[in-house]
Design a protein that fits this description.
Structural class: alpha/beta
Number of strands: 19
CATH class: Alpha Beta
Number of helices: 8
CATH superfamily: Metallo-dependent phosphatases
Strand content: 25-35%
CATH architecture: 4-Layer Sandwich
Order of helices and strands: HEHEEEHEHEEEEEHEHEEEEEEEHHE
Largest sheet: 9 strands, mixed
Length: 383
Amino acid sequence: MRKVFVLGLVLLLCGSACAETRARFLFIGDIMVHDQQLDAAKSGDTYNFAPSFRRIKPLFEDAFLVGNLETVFAGTGKKLKYAGFPFFNTPDVFTENLSNDLGVDLLSVANNHIFDRGAAGARRTVQVLESADLAWVGLGLDDVPSNDAIVLENDGIRAAFINHTYGSNEWPKSSDVHLNVISSRDISKSIARAKKLSPDVIIALFHWGNEYHFSPNVHQKRAADVAFTEGVSLIVGTHPHVLQPVEVRVSSDDVKAVAWSLGNFVSFQRTLPRERSMILSAEFVKDDKGVTRLAALGCVPLYVVAPGRKRTEVTYAGTDEGIIEKLDFSGLSRAQIASTRAIGRNVLDFLGAQKRVNELGFNVLWREESGDVLPVSRRKSPK
């Protein structure tokens, strides 16, 4: 009799919560490959970038991961060669490292470097990504219209992604490849296309802002307001190459958030603080009526170490013992590890993250259980 009572009590307490669907999305910042990284990855005629990610691979297990691809795969020959800044061109094998060593699911390609090797380079980049089974968004070409959206499902939640950039360093003469740019008109078009795909939530990936500035500019704020008004729930920004704050907007019937800039995920920009960034975690919940809401935001601080003069390795900079036990810190001295921890604390203070960590070891930025506690920066910069 007691077992029946307990079961009935559980069902009563569970109610609609048991019918909820939860999904977590992870986001990383600028993925760049400079000359030094090319040199470090080269062995004979082959390349391997996996060592750059070996220290953090466990952080992305069973996760839906989104990143900003700030390079192209234009191939070699006909005067083309692999190169870093200012005209990026990376070996195709890098896609294997992104897919197998990081588990990337989606890459944004609307950024200022997508036309570094012209329209042909952008077109080939998309072909290489598709061959590696990596989804992409941000360009219009062939059967993909301009200002398009892509819908991907993660643990029962359908997320529509749109991607726009402030512009490009190069503009090709060819008009058969369309770059999604940031304007009120184009953002509205993308969101309208997204809504036609019947998603549970719309997420905007914006490449914007002033490089090396720690706060958003007026153009970012205007674009964010347009996106939120049109129905976007989360905006994730890239381009400044440094971190910018996370803002959560809570109203009586809705929650929206913008991470103004995630900084550099991997690069050889060694000037402080361009070697520090974060993983952003966003958790969405769909209730039994099919309404989806943002339920939690979390973060993990990262630091790009350079154990060799050219090699770079993305490293966990947090202090959660549960995560630390899973990761590889071999080859780093005690002083380097201590310095990395101090950098991580600065990052968390800058983001206004709580000391509290969730069950996955991510520091809490915001959660609906305590919705009035918003992330407020405790530092002027992540230095």
